[in-house]
Amino acid sequence: AQAVFVVQELTTVRVQDPRVQNEGSWNSYVDYKIFLHTNSKAFTAKTSCVRRRYREFVWLRRQLQKNAGLVPVPELPGKSTFFVGSTDEFIEKRRQGLQQFLEKVVQNVVLLSDSRLHLFLQSQLSVPEIEACVQGQGSQTVTEAILHYAMSNCGWVQEEESRP
């Protein structure tokens, strides 16, 4: 008798390494590294690594909600302006919240069918570029944009830099 191995689809998504960009200026913001590792056929690239800021997550959630119809989209951590405690604590709380948000999103079949999600997680296109790409106005298809980013290895440069 032959043993039959059922490959379980696993997707690991991590939100890590918050960094303050443009520190000390009025337009400083924090972005987070999103590391994704999967064997799911839903994803074009099996591993990816991008940096995104909170504002982009807010946009993503709004788009997912629009397209998902009645499917509930997970909540994002709040945009608390009255946070008591240190900035580091706030950033860490937000990081955890963003990770929980993505963990829930990638487990939802309906949300996974939204190509905006894939470009958000697996390319470094900006929000307007993602919109253009999804509407077929970009220079590349969604799959091409993701593969192009995967091949360019931009994602791994960040991996290398953050090692001690």
TrEMBL record:
Q: Describe the location of the PX domain by residue ranges.
A: 10-127
**What GO terms are given for molecular function?**
phosphatidylinositol phosphate binding
Task: Just give the chief location class.
Answer: cytoplasm
Q: How does the record say this protein sits in the membrane?
A: Peripheral membrane protein
Q: Which InterPro entries match?
A: PX_dom (IPR001683), PX_dom_sf (IPR036871), SNX10/11 (IPR043544)
- Provide this UniProt record's keywords sorted from A to Z: Cytoplasm, Endosome, Lipid-binding, Membrane, Protein transport, Transport
**Localisation:** Cytoplasm; Endomembrane system; Endosome
GO process annotations (BP): intracellular protein transport; vesicle organization
GO cellular component terms, A-Z: endosome
Q: Which domain of life is it from?
A: Eukaryota
Family designation: Belongs to the sorting nexin family.
- The identity of this protein, by name, is SNX11 protein
In which organism is this protein found?
Answer: Nycticryphes semicollaris
